[in-house]
Design a protein that fits this description.
There is one protein chain. The chain is mainly alpha-helical. Helix content is 58%, strand content 5%. It contains 43 helices and twelve strands. Strands 2, 3, 5, 6 and 7 form a five-stranded mixed β-sheet that branches. Strand 9, helix 34 and strand 10 form a beta-alpha-beta unit. Helix 4 packs parallel to helix 7, helix 19 packs parallel to helix 23 and helix 31 packs antiparallel against helix 32. It is globular and about 70 Å long.
């Protein structure tokens, strides 16, 4: 294996040991083939690692696969292109048998074949979520091999990925339908005819262009109102609503194999505010009278994916003539361009071109960057809408086929088609390689140069030249420039005659505000005066949409008009938080919460015991908390504490609901066992330290007393149900994301573990970073006294292992340096030099010096205060760290209320930077311009303690 021996390795000693061990198990002829294939792969060291693990864990499968030339070639591809699928082979070695069948890999598998395979894999009745997720992953393995081995074209690969989703949705719905018919009878129209249901796929699924880790955008329709025919009859609306919710829940349910698909229903009529399932007549009325332009445009990709095809076609045929315009006036395209920014909320976070160089080569978003995938898709849709009215041949949901048809009809020249088609294929191949490595929905290039080089080596054609990170970026920028030139020429072009200069943004805002005021002067004069005084800039257009939604609600409009404090709060929120502005536009009734922002919702009404109502309650409660933060300048750590307590309440209520649900469906093995609150739910990370924020993940662990271990199966079902209730996507959205990977042994460990098992793990097997992580732990549900005693004991174990002899300082310093190297470029505000992690690690180190003292209060200011009183921090250091921590949390919080999700770097758009700069003074006296100074001073304090 001379080729492999001569390669550079990060850990040469380990690589040589693994090569020597593998050589003993491979015949000479196989060794030569193995040496040639692996040395020429994009990631030989990674492949070597997985071959060694396969040999150790599954020697039989190792022998079968490596002795087949085809099997070895395909196995090298999996092990060097996808860590996610490599782990799946180690978990399910029988899946690798399909790598030995060249006929199966070289042909396009039809939806009919996929359906037969899925039906054979499922037990009778409602399919368990884990079986659907396993089927998807097994198919991804086959499709990925076809992709990287060049056995399928891009449209074939995306078509197969879409076919897998179609089949899973279809079969899942049919099983749900059968179960509901058995319970309620068959749905019938008022004329006695059978009523039907259809699933409309939108977005990439509708265009048959799914990625490896795409969301699936769906819309649910039913044909007729009426009643079911069974003894326990319900309305058709309720029947199909149940079917829709069950289907969404089943596809997005958490299981040991992850979730099958993230389901997004927000593109349905009225978005998140609309019914989860709507009648065909209701949908037709909506698209005829109320739909906005972008809602019609997104229907270009709409397709009936499952259910009764004629029901779905009844809507799509109805809207088709409304989608396409016969006008060739390019001002129509300019109007589409203005709506483009509202198609997807993510576009607001897109980085401007002039910041790409400042940001460096990493972090480029191949989907949202100017000239990227989104621009190509939007440009194609603009051309389709302009020409599709006169020529139906160009009407197609798939981007590649639409491009070809636009060229066929002369709407694109051969050069223009070639430029767009080559750019689109390059970007989609790149997007796929970003996603199938770890099954992550990402479109962003890695920051780390080595990771970028690896992506480059995985690109098609990399083995025949190029294959470097530099050449990848060069080709990427060339494609961006070519697409952008055409995009600007087509979408932003103006007729030469009569061109009008674009008004400055401030003048445009003033003109629109004046229009809104004029329209309101008779109906709501006080509100009109408040708008004039507010002098809106960023918030004027969203507030205009909001007033449009309120035009049908005179009572709430009058409430705004008669309550100056409410009007001022609403206007302030619209000006400073695009995220909450959009929330109020979707749900205008939420404006009621702004009248009571200083009163926690839990004081007005307790959290409900129904999961759907709990999500609504949580959304309203969060709005109150965040409006108080933004509009009343509420102290940042008090806001984070309020948000943490809301999450606690939601988890506790979900725990109660889960116990009741599981007790009915999977009761304890011992009939006399009474489940109450025996299992503790432990929060870690930001929730554990009382600094949970909008868009935070909840790091949770489930711990059971040893005496309750005989009912481990019951409590595991409860834990799974808790996670599902919190994270499942419904028409009311999710509560928040949950991460359970911080439990002992990570994702490979049991979801629920006994107290003794956890303690033993941390006493003998845990890595330093794991032990230190549990210093930020707090019980949020279960028996609070028992959980506190358990955590006290666990933290004593931590202190005995890491808090003596200076070991913790070295461990923490090493951990911090690794995080800075790996995450600093992509998350500079947290993990970069002088970022928030410097403060956090310093406080953890000083806490470990505190002789095992158990901290019952965990947030950052409280930790600083305790450490100052104990003499570990001087007054000067304590004051600086408190100010710096407040600044970083305020910066993070500001980004979250602007975008609605976590950000770890400054935004690229000038508008978001201006919004952030306006928000910061509400929570900290330190301006945004002082960021570099705070970083330098924070690192200086960190170095003083750790050197």
């Amino acid at each position: 294996m001379h080729r492999l021996l001569n390669l550079p390795y990060r850990d040469r000693a380990r690589a040589e040991r693994e090569l020597a061990a593998l050589a003993k198990h491979l015949p000479p002829a196989v060794q030569n083939r193995f040496d040639l294939l692996l040395a020429g792969s994009p990631a030989p060291e990674q492949g070597l690692h997985y071959f060694t693990r396969l040999r150790d864990q599954h020697p039989g499968a190792f022998n079968r696969l490596t002795r087949s030339a085809i099997g070895l070639r395909h196995l090298v591809a999996v092990f060097t292109y996808s860590r996610f699928l490599s782990e799946e082979i180690l978990e399910h070695p029988d899946w690798a048998e399909q790598l030995l069948d060249p006929a199966d890999l070289q042909r396009l598998i039809t939806a009919e074949d996929l359906r037969a395979r899925l039906e054979a894999a499922l037990p009778p009745g409602l399919p368990p979520p884990v079986e659907l997720a396993k089927f998807r992953r097994r198919q991804l393995l086959r499709i990925m091999i076809r992709d990287v081995m060049g056995l399928g074209t891009l449209p074939e690969i995306t078509g197969e990925l879409t076919a897998v989703a179609d089949v899973i949705v279809e079969v899942a719905y049919e099983r749900i339908y059968q179960a509901l018919v058995a319970q309620f009878g068959q749905p019938r129209s008022e004329e006695g005819l059978e009523a039907h249901f259809a699933v409309i796929a939108l977005g990439k699924m509708g265009g048959q262009e799914l990625n490896y880790s795409s969301d699936i955008d769906l819309m649910f329709l039913y044909s007729d109102n009426g009643q079911t025919a069974g003894p326990a009859g319900i309305t058709n609306k309720e029947f199909f609503k149940r079917a829709s919710n069950q289907l969404t829940g089943l596809l997005s349910a958490y299981s040991a194999e992850g979730m099958c698909y993230r389901v997004d229903l927000r593109l349905r009529p009225d978005g998140s505010l609309g019914e989860v399932c709507i009648s065909v007549h209701g949908a037709q009325t909506y698209y005829e009278k109320r739909a906005r332009d972008w809602e019609l445009q997104m229907l270009i990709k709409a397709r009936v994916a499952a259910g009764h095809r004629p029901t779905g076609r009844a809507l799509l045929d109805f809207v088709e003539s409304r989608i396409y315009s016969t006008s060739l006036d390019f001002s129509a395209i300019e109007e589409l361009s203005a709506t483009r920014e509202r198609i997807n909320e993510k576009l607001a976070a897109r980085q401007a071109n002039r910041r790409a160089e400042r940001r460096g080569p990493g972090g480029i978003d191949v989907k949202l960057e100017r000239g990227g995938i989104r621009d190509i898709e939007f440009l194609v849709q603009c051309l389709q809408r302009l020409h599709g009215g006169a020529d139906s041949w160009v009407r197609h949901g798939g981007t590649m086929l639409a491009l070809a048809r636009l060229q066929d009809k002369g709407f694109l020249t051969g050069a223009e088609y070639g430029r767009l088609a080559q750019a689109y294929q390059f970007l989609r191949h790149l997007e796929h390689r970003l996603q199938f490595d770890e099954d992550r929905q990402t479109h962003r290039l890695p920051e780390d140069p080595e990771a970028l080089e690896l992506i480059a080596r995985r690109m098609p054609g990399a083995s025949s030249g190029g294959g470097s990170g530099e050449s990848l970026l060069r080709e990427l920028r060339n494609h961006f420039a070519g697409v952008l030139e055409m995009y600007e020429r087509v979408v932003h072009s103006r007729p030469a005659a009569g061109a009008v200069q674009t008004e400055p943004a401030a003048q445009t805002a003033g003109r629109h505000t004046a229009f809104v005021i004029q329209a309101l002067e008779q109906r709501a004069p006080a509100l009109a005066a408040a708008i004039a005084r507010a002098d809106l800039h960023r918030g004027y257009r969203p507030f205009e949409y909001f007033l449009e939604r309120l035009s049908h609600d005179p009572a709430r409009l009058e409430h705004l008009n008669s309550d100056p404090d409410l009007a001022a709060t609403a206007l302030d929120l619209f000006e400073h938080s695009p995220y909450f502005a959009e929330e109020l536009i979707r749900r205008p009734e939420s404006v009621d919460e702004l009248a009571r922002v200083s009163i926690p919702l839990i004081q007005d009404e307790p959290p409900p015991h129904d999961a759907t109502e709990l999500r609504r309650w949580f959304r309203r409660a969060i709005l109150r908390v965040e409006a108080e933060s933004i509009c009343r300048s509420h102290p940042i750590f008090e806001t984070l504490d309020s948000t943490s307590r809301l999450a606690d309440v939601a988890i506790e209520r979900a725990y109660e609901i889960a116990i009741a649900d599981v007790r009915s469906s999977n009761p304890p093995e011992n009939p006399g066992y009474q489940p109450k609150n025996q299992m503790s739910i432990i929060a870690l990370g930001r929730l554990g330290m009382r600094e949970f924020d909008l868009g935070s993940d909840a790091d949770l662990m489930f711990v059971l007393p040893d005496g309750d271990a005989p009912e481990m199966i019951f409590w595991t079902h409860v834990a799974e149900r808790v996670v599902h209730l919190i994270t499942a996507y419904t028409g009311e959205g999710v509560l928040f994301a949950v991460d359970t990977r911080l439990r002992p042994n990570g994702g490979a460990g049991p979801l629920v573990q006994t107290e003794n098992a956890v303690t033993e793990y941390f006493a003998h097997a845990a890595e330093a970073w794991e032990g230190i992580t549990y210093m930020k732990s707090l019980a949020v549900a279960g028996d609070p006294k028992r959980a506190e005693l358990f955590l006290h004991e666990l933290q004593q174990v931590d202190w005995r292992r890491y808090g003596q002899g200076g070991r913790s300082r070295a461990d923490l310093r090493e951990m911090r340096a690794r995080l800075e190297k790996e995450q600093g470029p992509s998350r500079p505000l947290k993990a970069g030099r002088g970022g928030y992690y410097d403060i956090d690690f310093l406080l953890m180190y000083l806490r470990l010096k505190s002789a095992g003292v158990f901290f019952t209060v965990l947030n950052t200011p409280a930790r600083i205060e305790v450490l100052e009183h104990m003499g570990h921090l001087s007054r000067h250091d304590a004051q600086f760290l408190n100010n710096a921590a407040t600044f970083y949390r305020a910066l993070d919080h500001g980004l979250r209320v602007i975008t609605g999700h976590a950000e770890s770097r400054l935004p690229g758009s000038d508008s978001q930077l201006e919004a952030l700069d306006a928000l910061l003074p509400r929570w900290t006296p330190i301006p945004l311009s002082a960021l570099n100074r705070i970083r330098s001073e924070t690192r200086a304090v960190f170095d003083r303690f750790f050197r």
